[in-house]
Write a structure and sequence with these properties.
Blueprint: E1 3-9, H1 16-21, E2 28-33, H2 40-46, E3 50-53, H3 60-70, E4 75-80, E5 83-85, H4 87-98, E6 105-108, E7 110-114, E8 117-118, E9 129-134, E10 138-142, E11 147-151, E12 155-157, E13 162-167, H5 170-190, H6 197-214, H7 221-253
Parallel strand pairs: 1-2, 1-4, 2-3, 6-12, 7-13
Antiparallel strand pairs: 4-9, 5-13, 6-9, 7-8, 10-11
Helix pairs in contact: 5-7, 6-7
């Protein structure tokens, strides 16, 4: 059975080569780019990927669905540019597709790094993600921040893990924290959720406790504490931004 790998990109020159080189064994690699201004497309072209460029950014789920529609494989492996497939995961996928798969989609454990450390606690491991699926059996849904695979049929689980460089340094943590908290606040506002400073503080404290204590983040040392703090900040600012959105909407409606 033919396997297509689909990747969505924008300005990923620092990581895309590692991702594509790890799936050079696949029958086809499709990259859908949303307007890169760095060397991303040159690198993808040099590694033999089929490249398609879109003029908009509809969100990760819709963009992945576009990539799926542009691919031709019987099975699809969907990756982010900052992820890569290990040789052991490659061998497991190849063996699976040579046999008779007993499911129409498979979840893959994912090992992610935070500021140079691979995190085994804090809710980051094993972090199974649904990424391998049969054509026609699944589509992506979700909002502007997080997407998810909607599967029509049985989902299995692979043993070997996918690698993921989630955050390279603190600057990237802060940049994504700002973006994600804004997108999260927008989503909550659209859902009619209510904010408030007390709610923001409570969500921040609870997120720290859950990450650092309940999920064992303290076992990941310095980076485990850093992760718990950044998660707490993300939750706090999401609800602060929600509060300010509600205030602005209330002023606008009273005019």
């Amino acid at each position: 059975m033919k396997l297509s790998v689909v990747v969505i990109t924008k300005n990923e020159e620092s990581v895309i080569a590692r991702c594509l080189e790890s799936v050079a064994w696949a029958d086809e690699v499709v990259v859908v780019d949303s307007g890169s201004t760095d060397r991303t497309l040159d690198i993808c072209r040099g590694l033999g990927a089929n490249i398609h460029v879109t003029s908009d950014w509809p969100g990760p789920g819709t963009q992945r669905n576009r990539a799926i529609d542009l691919s031709s494989g019987d099975w699809i492996l969907a990756l982010d540019a900052d992820e890569w497939v290990t040789p052991r995961l490659r061998d497991e996928i190849v063996a699976l597709l040579k046999a008779a798969p007993d499911a129409v989609a498979y979840r893959i454990p994912r090992l992610s790094s935070y500021c140079g450390r691979y995190m085994r606690h804090g809710g980051w491991w094993p972090d199974p993600v649904s990424r391998l699926f049969k054509r026609g059996a699944a589509r992506y849904g979700g909002g502007i921040v997080h997407d998810h695979l909607v599967v029509d049929g049985r989902t299995g689980m692979l043993r070997e893990h996918l690698m993921h460089e989630a955050f390279t340094d603190v600057d990237e943590v802060l940049s994504k924290l700002n973006s994600y908290s804004s997108w999260g606040a927008q989503t909550l506002h659209e859902q009619g959720k209510s904010g408030g400073i007390v709610s923001a503080v409570a969500h921040g404290i609870w997120t720290f406790v859950r990450t650092y204590l309940l999920h064992g983040g303290f076992l990941d040392g310095r980076e485990g504490f850093m992760l718990a703090v950044s998660n707490a900040e993300g939750a706090y600012y999401k609800y602060v931004k929600l509060t300010l959105r509600q205030r602005a909407a209330g002023k606008a409606s009273s005019r």
